[in-house]
Amino acid sequence: MFKKITILSILVALFYSSAFSQQIRRFNPDTLRTIVIDSAVNIRSHKLNAQDFIDAIVADTSFYKAFQNLKRFSFVAENRIYTYDKKNKVDGKIYRKLKHSMVGTTHKMEYLAKQDSGNVFKKNGKYQLYTVEMFDYIFENAYNSDFTKGDALPGDSGGKNESYKDKLKTLIFTPGRKVKGIPFISSKTEIFGPDMRQFYYYEFARGKYMDSIPIYRFKVIRKPSISSGDVMIQEMTTIFDMRTFKILGRTVNMKYSNFLFSFDVQMNIELNRFDNTLLPTKISYQGTWDIPFHKIERASFLVLHKDYKVNK
Q1: How far apart are CA 297 and CA 135, in angstroms?
Q2: In angstroms, rounded to a whole number, what is the distance separating the alpha carbons of residues 154 and 189?
Q3: Which residues contact 114 (CB under 8 A, 6 or more apart)?
Q4: pLDDT tens readout for residues 175-194
Q5: FRET pair for 228, CA 20 to 30 Å: which of 23, 74, 211, 220?
């Protein structure tokens, strides 16, 4: 049982954002602040229905592959991480400004700025929090992570050998699929399946993304009559390019609690098109989690990618 808890702590660490204080909120603007909503949508007049949006979400590959596309570009990444004490006051800060580029066939990562303060590292040099460790694995080393290896989508490896990091990526990049091997919550991730679909209703709107791109906003929201403990994904918002029906952004709010662990998570990822290629532009996260034998972790981060240039 202890082994399961330890594995789960690593898995859940990246996923615990919550609105637990206004102090944390100010570090993590969400997708909706990048979007101006014009009006609600009568999707029938657009010759669409809820299943069209669901099918697009479940079948989508471009959202994950936007990260794989990074290997074709040079870019600058700004990463800000904040950790919090039990009173939700900042007790650790990490700032990195990194220039990623290619020299021939070799990736080069140059630090343009690097600052740490507060309670960030252990005496052995490792990060204090699993959350920060997982952030470093998933996002900070963009070229070096396995986002850039092969074309397989997260969750495709299957079987007992599927890594816990792959399960983590499945929750982020292909929501709506069942993620096997996560105690107590595996059955709750398949929100469009016959067992979970009854717990949600849908909202549709249209608007502008980044001031110019016409979009649909599709929200999956837990029904008020359903207890928050009956579901894990409380709300999921997906942004579609109205012209191509490609996914440009996603915000996920996940919350769950039982006798072993609890977490409360919000995470947002946004894409934009450069040189006719979808690439990540913003990742934000905030939250808290609590698992036996570990202190409560509270953290938030904001990642901005900019100055994309095609590698030559």
Answers
A1: 13
A2: 14
A3: 95, 96, 97
A4: 777 777 666 676 788 889 88
A5: 23
